[in-house]
Amino acid sequence: MIAASGLLSFKLGKRRARSQLENNEPLRSMPIYHGLYVSLWTILPPIFLLILFLIFKNNILDYLITPFISASTITMGLDEVIYVKNSLMNNISNLNNLIDSDFLSKEMAYSLYGKYSLGRLVIFGSLVILSIIFSFLTFKKLSVRFDARRRVESIFKFIFFLFSTMAVLTTVGIILSLIFETIRFFSHVGFFEFIFGTHWSPQTSIREDQVGSSGSFGAIPLFTGTLLITAVAMSIAAPLGLYSAIFLSQYAKPRTRDWLKPILEILAGIPTVVYGFFAALTVGPFVRSCGEYLGLTVATESALAAGAVMGVMIIPYVSSLSDDVMSAVPVSLRDGSLALGATKAETVKKVIFPAALPGIVSALLLAISRAIGETMIVVMAAGLAANLTANPLSAVTTVTVQIVTLLVGDQEFDSAKTLAAFALGLMLFAITLVLNIFAMIIVRRYRERYE
Amino acid sequence: MNDSLKNKSLIKCSDVNVYYADQQALFNINLDIKEKEVTSLIGPSGCGKSTFLRCINRMNDVIDICKVEGSIKIDNQNIYDPEVDVVELRSRIGMVFQKPNPFPKSVYDNVAYGPKLHGRILHQSDLDSKVQESLERAGLWAEVKDRLQEPGTSLSGGQQQRLCIARAIAIDPSVILMDEPCSALDPIATAKIEELIDELKSKYTITIVTHSMQQAARVSQRTAFFHLGKLIEVGDTEKIFRSPEHEQTEAYVTGRYG
Is the same domain home to A153 and A248? Predict the structure, then answer.
């Protein structure tokens, strides 16, 4: 309906502009802008009003329902009031459900539904009236001298600005929710106990008197586990990625590069779950049998297996980005070096690699932050045991894995156990943020040098 | 052709044909370049003079689709022989490019790059004196002797180009190829480079591609005129500019063409 009214007002505005065009001096703006101007003012105010209503919908419903509850029930605890309120809110759009819900007598149900319907009608009517008022007002403003084009431009500017802030606001919202839950967590568990504690066993019990009811939330083993797996992954991804990038950018013929690069990038497109069972079912047992052959004890779920597979997964992050930066090193530098009698390898080592180094470093940092945040492979292949160890052959667990296991249980949502997930998430976010900022700073410096 | 007789030919090119994929860029070029002289290659854009220059140190090998036929002999050795080591060949020929292209390293490391690469200099003190000697010969020493550790890219355009020349002569080449070395420079920097070329010719055989007729007239002893991939005329610079044999050459050097 909004679209129809928009279209109608657009046509009207355009026609009015046209009619003035015929008998008067030339228009300042094209007729289409007159149409757009009217139509935008017809559509946008009701849309904003609607959004406003949606945001405050619960408050309005609450306001409607509250008198009925205080009238109907005798004495209820706070929890029950909330429960009744919620079930009424959920059923309010359907009269029969409202009658069946047992909380209200039939007359009260009718009365509540009547008020609800009236409210809807009022809202709907106000939208229509608002739309008509605005379209009428703007329609009046149209004239030959009217600069509709510039006004439409500024309206669009505003709309685009609004959309661009959406992403930012979402990010801010996520961070804020993390921060608040983290603060709640630290009211259960001390900050330093969390940061520096070396023992992780988040088993809070249901009854107070059970053994180990307090649980312990030392995050160190998780972060060392993350670090260990990331280190294993990077020790595979960095050399493989860099050498393939050097091959792609310096040695490969354009045709080879054309098919080789997309194939490498496919690695990044494989779902991490698939990598996960590849790690758990193929690489893990393989690593173990190799270890046994060498006389080492290797857990089936080992940091080595998970890290190795993760390394393969992030190869394209390293190779693709490094290839781009090395290809971006000016050809004149390469030619200059070759003309002095350097071989290709010497040129790569002494000129191209140093020149591309900042870009390569930032590619590596991005790959690291990808590895830190990776969950699925580790869940499936590295185990759940929070061991504080630097031995890649033993089972370890990571921050992300623990977040998953903390939230998968059926604990109530404000126990220390579930809140710990938010604290871990916030720390993880902080770490990857710092890494990304580093990468960005380095890339910026690199750009400046070549302009 | 009335060539000057005082110097012997160092580079002898016979029947050089160059193809980019299916397109022929040079047609049967026969050109001798004489020792310790400046030879300039002139001609309108796209006539193949830069392509020809890049044949002399086999820089065209870098381009995949480029194919070179014929023979180019330096000191009576055909550089397109299969046994010839391209890397060794290039270490005997210096090249200066159109745009100054110092490496993103210090001034010192830029000049020391070649000598270090070829392992000809073993002691640090020898390397220091080599760098100084090359910079002096390139007329840059006085300007940069206190900023040897600054990045080469921080110098001005003209200084950068002279740094590239110093870098090229640091490997003791017998030939220096210059591909429009002044096209990115202002007139003052250009004058300095031209002066430098004049001094360098006592020691090196120089071939320069240029778009500026005045520059060719000022710095070179011999001039070769290219047009549409063909060598139209070659001879003493004076003769090419005063009384060329070919009509096309005359039209080009007097500015009526190209």
Answer: no
DSSP state of B106: B
- Preferred mutation among B66, B95, B103 to probe A, highest tally of A CBs within 10 A: B103
Average pLDDT over residues A334-342: 91
DSSP state letter for A251: I
A233 plus A119 within the same structural domain: no
What's at B113, amino acid-wise? Y
Report chain B (258 residues): mean pLDDT per 10 consecutive residues. Answer: 62 92 91 92 90 91 87 90 90 91 91 88 87 91 91 90 93 92 87 90 93 91 92 92 89 77
**Are A341 and B113 inside 8 Å of each other by CB?**
no
Looking up residue A413, the CATH number of its domain turns out to be: 1.10.3720.10
Q: How far apart are CA B77 and CA A345, in angstroms?
A: 26
**Which domain, by its residues, includes A246?**
216-449
Minimal-distance CA residue of chain A relative to B64: A253
Instruction: Write the burial class of residue B174 (CB in 10 Å: 0-12 exposed, 13-18 middle, 19+ buried).
Output: middle
Q: Which domains does chain B have, with CATH numbers?
A: 1-92+173-258 (3.40.50.300), 102-168 (no CATH)
Nearest chain B CA: its distance from A242 CA (Å):
21
Interchain proximity B95–A339, CB inside 8 Å: yes
Helix A31-55 vs helix A148-188: crossing angle, to nearest 10: 20
Q: Is A199 within the bounds of a domain? A: no
Q: ipTM strictly over 0.95?
A: no
Q: Is the pLDDT of residue A391 over 60?
A: yes
Instruction: Indicate the residue of A253, A332, A340 with minimum beta-carbon distance to B90.
Output: A340
Length of chain B: 258
Whether B88 has its CB under 8 Å from any CB of chain A: the answer is: yes
A267 and A397: one domain? yes
Chain A residue with CA closest to B56: the answer is: A339
Shortest distance between the Cα of B90 and any Cα of chain A, in A, equals 5
pLDDT band at A192 (very low <50, low <70, confident <90, very high): confident
Q: Give the global pTM.
A: 0.73
Give the pLDDT confidence of A85-105 residue by residue, as tens digits: 777 777 777 777 777 766 667
